[in-house]
Design goal:
The complex is a heterodimer of chains A (139) and B (225). By secondary structure, chain A is mainly α. Chain A is built from 8 helices and no strands. The two termini of chain A are 18 Å apart. Chain B has one domain: Fumarate Reductase Cytochrome B subunit (Up-down Bundle). Chain B is globular. The chains are: A mainly alpha (139), B mainly alpha (225). Chains A and B meet through helix 3 and helix 5 of A and helix 5, helix 8 and helix 11 of B.
C-alpha cells in the first residue's frame, strides 16, 4: 500500500521541465558539506545496522544510509544538478520510500547523513517531485 | 637513477605535498565551518543515543552496555581489525629499525626501534588485516554496493609499502628493484593522503570532534557556513 502510494507522483504546478539551474544553486549553497562528506565516506558500510529499514528489509544494501546519501545528494552533486525528471523520481523513491529521516543513522566518520538526505528531499520538492499520500481525487 | 631519485628528491616532494596538502585541506575545512556559541546538540553525559543503560548497571556495566550498543557491538570483528590495521599503519613504519637507522644517519637523531622480528610479525598481521578488508570489499554485498575503484586503490596504497618492505627485508626478488619500488610506493601513499579518501585520516577528527552533530565526540561547536 505504502509503496504504491509513494510511487504515484504528486500532480503539482511544475510538470515535466526540471530547473537544473535552481538545483545547482541549491547544491552550491551546501557545496562544502556535500564535497567533504563524499570525500570522508570510506565506503565501509558500518552505518548499515544503524538503519532500521536496512535490518527490516533482509539487509538489502540499498537501505544502507551511505548508499542512500551517495545515490541522492551525492548523485545530484556529481551531475552538477543536470538531471532529468526520471532521475529525480528515482531519487525521490530513495529519500522518501527508503528513508524516513528518523535521523538514527550513525556514521563512524561523522558524516551528517540525515542532513544530506534532507537536502535531496528539498531539491526534489523544489521541482515538484515528491510522494503523494492522498488518495487520487481527494485533494 | 630511479633509486637515487626515489631516495632523494622524491622523498622531499612527497613530504612537502603531504604536509602542504593536509594543511590546505584542514584549513579549508575550518574556513567552511564557523564556530557557534551554543551547543546545537548539547546533551548531558548520560543522555544521547547510547543511553540505554540504568544507574543500577554501575560504571562498568554502563560502559559494557555502551560498547554493546555501538558499532563495536554490532560489528566486533571489523572494528577489531580496523583498530589493529590503523594502529599498525602508523606504528610499524615509525618504529622500524631500518627507517630509524636512515633517519639517524640523515639527521643524527631517531625514535626508538622495536626488534626486527617483532616488526616482521606485525607486518604479517597488518597484511592479514589488509587482506581481510580486501575480501570484505569483494565478497560482502553491502560493501560491494558502495565500492568504487578508489576504494581498492587506497587499500592498495596502504598495503603495498608494507608488502614491498617485507620483500625487501627478506631480500626476496632483486633487492635494489624491490627497495626502489618500496620507496616509490611509500611516496605515492604520502602524496595521495590529502587528495584521496585517505583524507579520512584527518577528516575523521575534524568531523567527529569539531563539527557539531548528534554523534560529536568532545565538544564540537562548529557548524557549516
Amino acid at each position: 500500500m505504502l509503496d504504491r502510494a509513494l510511487t504515484e507522483v504528486a500532480a503539482s504546478g511544475k510538470t515535466t521541465a526540471v530547473d537544473t539551474a535552481e538545483i545547482k544553486h541549491m547544491l552550491d549553497r551546501h557545496k562544502a558539506k556535500i564535497k567533504i562528506s563524499l570525500r570522508a565516506c570510506v565506503h565501509c558500510s558500518l552505518c548499515a545496522e544503524s538503519c532500521f529499514l536496512y535490518t527490516s528489509h533482509h539487509r538489502d544494501p540499498r537501505y544502507m544510509p551511505a548508499y542512500k546519501f551517495i545515490h541522492s545528494t551525492g548523485l545530484l552533486y556529481k551531475k552538477k544538478g543536470k538531471v532529468d525528471r526520471a532521475c529525480l523520481e528515482k531519487i525521490r523513491d530513495i529519500v522518501w520510500q527508503d528513508c524516513v529521516l528518523c535521523t538514527r543513522c550513525y556514521c563512524i566518520c561523522g558524516i551528517d547523513i540525515p542532513g544530506l538526505i534532507s537536502l535531496a528531499r528539498s531539491i526534489c520538492r523544489s521541482q515538484g517531485v515528491y510522494p503523494d499520500f492522498t488518495v487520487s481525487g481527494e485533494r | 637513477m630511479l633509486y637515487n631519485l626515489a631516495q632523494g628528491p622524491l622523498v622531499w616532494v612527497a613530504f612537502i605535498l603531504f604536509v602542504a596538502g593536509s594543511v590546505y585541506q584542514v584549513t579549508r575545512l575550518l574556513a567552511l565551518t564557523r564556530k557557534t556559541e551554543a551547543h546545537r546538540w548539547g546533551r548531558t553525559p548520560d543522555a544521547g543515543p547510547l543511553s540505554g543503560t540504568r544507574p543500577a548497571d554501575g560504571l562498568s556495566g554502563r560502559w559494557t552496555a555502551r560498547l554493546r550498543l555501538s558499532i563495536a557491538g554490532t560489528q566486533p570483528l571489523t572494528i577489531g581489525v580496523t583498530v589493529i590495521f590503523h594502529t599498525l599503519l602508523f606504528l610499524v613504519p615509525l618504529f622500524l629499525l631500518a627507517h630509524n637507522i636512515l633517519v639517524d644517519e640523515a639527521w643524527g637523531f631517531s625514535l626508538f626501534a622495536v626488534r626486527e622480528k617483532l616488526s616482521d610479525y606485525l607486518t604479517w598481521l597488518f597484511l592479514a588485516c589488509a587482506l581481510f578488508f580486501l575480501l570484505r570489499r569483494m565478497l560482502l554485498a553491502r560493501v560491494r554496493a558502495l565500492s568504487s575503484f578508489q576504494d581498492y586503490y587506497i587499500l592498495f596504497l596502504a598495503a603495498a609499502p608494507f608488502a614491498s618492505g617485507f620483500l625487501a627485508y627478506h631480500q626476496i626478488f632483486d633487492y635494489r628493484m624491490v627497495i626502489t619500488l618500496h620507496m616509490l610506493l611509500g611516496e605515492l601513499m604520502l602524496v595521495s593522503i590529502p587528495f584521496t579518501r585517505i583524507a579520512h585520516m584527518f577528516l575523521f577528527f575534524v568531523l567527529r570532534f569539531l563539527v557539531a552533530h548528534e554523534y560529536s565526540l568532545g565538544s564540537g561547536r562548529r557548524v557549516w557556513r
